[in-house]
Amino acid sequence: MDVKNMREYMGWLYYQYLLITGIYVLEPWEKSIFNTVLFTMVAMVVYTSYVFVPVHVRLALEFFSGLCGEQPETLSATSYMMVRDGTLNECSCIA
């Protein structure tokens, strides 16, 4: 696809965006405010999905693996404790 066809196609997509959203009837300053708000909302949804979806997927997998009969890993009597300087210290815990 050459540059001219790509430019025409992008122009056609933008025209479709204007028609579908109905912002072709707005004034230029209103269009810019609408586009800014829309872009901000889409950016927040993408960022939130990137940050929080993996955590929820992991928790859901742990939950459903527990329902399917897999036994959770047992804690050993020796575990590790994080101290202020970031090092791991071994501590003996009686359960």
TrEMBL record:
InterPro entries: Ser_palmitoyltrfase_ssu-like. It is found in: Endoplasmic reticulum membrane. It comes from the Eukaryota. Keywords: Endoplasmic reticulum, Lipid metabolism, Membrane, Sphingolipid metabolism, Transmembrane, Transmembrane helix. Pathway: Sphingolipid metabolism; Lipid metabolism; sphingolipid metabolism. Component of the serine palmitoyltransferase multisubunit enzyme (SPT) that catalyzes the initial and rate-limiting step in sphingolipid biosynthesis by condensing L-serine and activated acyl-CoA (most commonly palmitoyl-CoA) to form long-chain bases. The SPT complex is composed of SPTLC1, SPTLC2 or SPTLC3 and SPTSSA or SPTSSB. Within this complex, the heterodimer consisting of SPTLC1 and SPTLC2/SPTLC3 forms the catalytic core. Within the SPT complex, SPTSSB stimulates the catalytic activity and plays a role in substrate specificity. Component of the serine palmitoyltransferase (SPT) complex, which is composed of SPTLC1, SPTLC2 or SPTLC3 and SPTSSA or SPTSSB. The heterodimer consisting of SPTLC1 and SPTLC2/SPTLC3 forms the catalytic core of the enzyme, while SPTSSA or SPTSSB subunits determine substrate specificity. SPT also interacts with ORMDL proteins, especially ORMDL3, which negatively regulate SPT activity in the presence of ceramides. This is Serine palmitoyltransferase small subunit B. The gene is sptssb.
